[in-house]
Amino acid sequence: MADFDPAEDELTPPPEGTGAISAHMTPDRQASHFKRARHARETEIIEDYVELIADLIDEQGEARAVDIAKRLGVTGATVNKMVARLKQMNLVNAEPYRSVFLTDEGREMAEASRERHHIVVALLRVVGVDEATAWADAEGMEHRCSPETLMAFKEFVKRHKS
Amino acid sequence: MADFDPAEDELTPPPEGTGAISAHMTPDRQASHFKRARHARETEIIEDYVELIADLIDEQGEARAVDIAKRLGVTGATVNKMVARLKQMNLVNAEPYRSVFLTDEGREMAEASRERHHIVVALLRVVGVDEATAWADAEGMEHRCSPETLMAFKEFVKRHKS
DNA sequence: TATAAAAGTTAGCCTTGACTAATAATTGTA
DNA sequence: TACAATTATTAGTCAAGGCTAACTTTTATA
Q1: A20: pLDDT confidence band, cut at 50, 70 and 90?
Q2: Domain ranges, ordered by start, for chain A
Q3: Mutate: best of B113, B133, B142, B161, partner A, most A CBs <10 A
Q4: Which of A148, A51, A135 is closest to B148 using CA atoms?
Q5: Terminus-to-terminus CA distance in chain A, angstroms?
Q6: Contact call for B128 and A55, based on CB within 8 A
Q7: Cβ separation B114–A144 shorter than 8 A
Q8: Among A160, B3, B11, B110, whose CB has the most other CB atoms within 10 angstroms?
Q9: Per-residue pLDDT tens for B112-132?
Q10: Which of B55, B68, B116, B143 is the best residue to mutate to test the A interface, defined by the most A CB atoms within 10 Å of its own CB?
Q11: CB contact under 8 A, A136 and B124
């Protein structure tokens, strides 16, 4: 978690051939894409936890470790460790043997994440992906879309739905 | 790398509310989405390496560790370790102090990966994402699309490109 | 052809995010 | 209320994928 420097992350202009290098796709620009991807991998787990905690609170009034574990398909021990990390990041409040709550910051992240999730699902639906697949694939794609892409998705969906 | 069992990966039908649980989105179905996502995270690095090696071979006739490192934005030591792993997976052939070559299996993976990459870029372009952003975002999204979604993208692009 | 520069290798360390197993606390119920 | 079941915590392990530093091999050039 210390690999991605937004300052050096200039968006890379397109190559011309197969996906290969060109005058525009220099090695270090390509490197910045990969750094961006690595950074996304690191943050998406955090976002998944936070979004799920928000869902549980909304549905059941509280987010218990055991439910988080069940829905993520991991063990309670893993959840416990992760919650400690989220707490340290000031995304959740958690006391021993009590369920987990979101801080303002955490809720903000959850909302943002959830909105992205929905936009991606909507876009997939519009381009013809069936609903089940859309929900399955959105889990993952949502973390890799820049604000620009999400905005484009939103606009596109608005213009094309129904 | 031993978490995802395709056998239990039934696609999850959609929920109805905010993204929350419903009769269709049972906890273990949601868990399978997250397992799928974790699996994708594990394989995408492999795919990035393999695709990049293919690019380098096509462009320069060979893939040297130093060039791989430069384009991925990692150190040579990291590349070395990863190449050893790729070799063990029978995706590349590599001899000490020589550059890296793809096995048939590796080239197959590279082609598939590259094709997915291009489809995603094309889809993004069609829905209005600018070219630079499309290339940046495709790095990452390409690994998270199911065959169904890619097929839908392909069809959609075919129907909509100017 | 020496020798310096570049590239590759190896060893050792770190963090993340999983796991299991053992233990402790809480909760529900007979 | 006591006890059983559920839930949470802690400790220790593992593999992946990064890193740096030291060293070796190859390549290029003075």
Answers
A1: low
A2: 21-160
A3: B133
A4: A135
A5: 42
A6: no
A7: no
A8: B110
A9: 999 999 999 999 999 999 999
A10: B55
A11: no
Whose tokens are 């869902």? That residue is A55
Which of the four pLDDT bands, split at 50, 70 and 90, describes residue B2?
A: very low
For B97-116, letters b (16+ CB in 10 Å) and e give: eebbebbeebbebbeebbeb
For chain B residues 62-101, those near strand C by a CB cutoff of 7 A are 64-66, 69, 76-77, 80-81, 83, 94-99
Segment 9-68 of chain B within 8 Å of chain A by CB:
11-15, 18-21, 25, 27-28, 30-37, 40-41, 44, 48, 51, 55, 58-59, 67
- What CATH code is assigned to B108-160? 1.10.60.10
**How many other CB atoms are there within 10 angstroms of residue A147's CB atom?**
9
In Å, what is the CA distance from B152 to each residue of A130, A159, B21, B40, B65? Answer: 9, 19, 26, 20, 37
The residue among A50, A36, A42 whose CA lies nearest residue A112 is A50
Distance CA(B19)–CA(B25), nearest Å, equals 9
Enumerate the β-bridge partners of residue A100.
A63
**According to CATH, what is the number of the domain B23-104?**
1.10.10.10
- Residue A86 main-chain phi, psi, to 5 deg: -60, -35
The H or E element that residue B86 is part of is helix B76-88
Beta strand pairing call for B92-94 and A101-102: unpaired
CATH for A21-160, among 3.40.1190.20, 1.10.10.10, 1.20.1440.20, 3.40.50.740? 1.10.10.10
